[in-house]
Amino acid sequence: MRKKFVAGNWKMFTHAAAARQLASAVAHGLGNDKRVSVAVCPPFPYLSAVAEALKGGSVALGAQNCYHEKEGAFTGEVSPAMLVDVGCRYVILGHSERRQKLGESDAFINRKVHAALAAGLEVILCLGETLEERQSHRTETVLETQLNGSLAGIEANSLRRVVLAYEPVWAIGTGQNATPQQAQDAHAFLRGKIRARFGEETASALPIQYGGSVKPDNAAILFAQPDVDGGLIGGASLNADSFLAIVRAALGEPAA
Length: 256
Ligand code: PGA
Hints:
It is a single chain. The chain has a single domain (5-250), classed as TIM Barrel. It is globular and about 45 Å long. The model has no long low-confidence stretch (mean pLDDT 97). It has an eight-stranded parallel β-barrel with strand order 1-2-3-4-5-6-7-8, surrounded by six helices. The chain is α/β, with parallel strands linked by helices and 256 residues long. The chain contains twelve helices and eight strands. 45% of the residues are buried. Helix 1 packs parallel to helix 12 and helix 7 (139-150) packs across helix 9 (180-198). The structure holds 2-phosphoglycolic acid. Residues 9, 167, 172-173, 211-214, 232-236 line the site of 2-phosphoglycolic acid.
């Protein structure tokens, strides 16, 4: 059985003291529980402080983006090696906010996926359709295009260090989550595409998170779907109690 994986995407929120405090509270709340994988992804400036706060515990550190070059004259960019250097295990790539607001294409994301994997990071690759795409019945086409484009040239053995996050754009930060069935259908579709390209073993080992308005009161039912292996949590990850309640839901325990 796949282990559930819950990651907090703090986006462009917190400040130094708040980031340290939130990370400590999450680390303390999880303790040494290894039944679920948990990560937090703070903004770049707080990665080191959060790494310090997580030391010795079971919560892993992730970043929210990286550039595809190792080093060089790329003002403002951060390399995968730098993320490893400050203690990151994960990097989120292809988030819809970056696709939409910063114009990231699948080809650009693909270069970052290659670079991140080569540097030893694990990639949380986000995919998802807009409301307009869903309403015009293009969800599967969009997901397939994003999947193929972002994972072009990736071999099955590298896919062991990739996690997919299905995040319908219309559900992100809106309070309107996908229904458990909508999530399950999209996840099963994505897993089917992975199966067709990489085989059963790789497909059945691949964690697929759901993201988009996951809260303590809807997490359990979403995570109970057979192809939903945890969540990528935005808003609700900014509060230790609600994030930990979602982690408990991933364990099948009561949220309260
Ligand atoms: P949300 O964000 O939980 O606030 O909807 C999820 C995400 O963007 O990863």
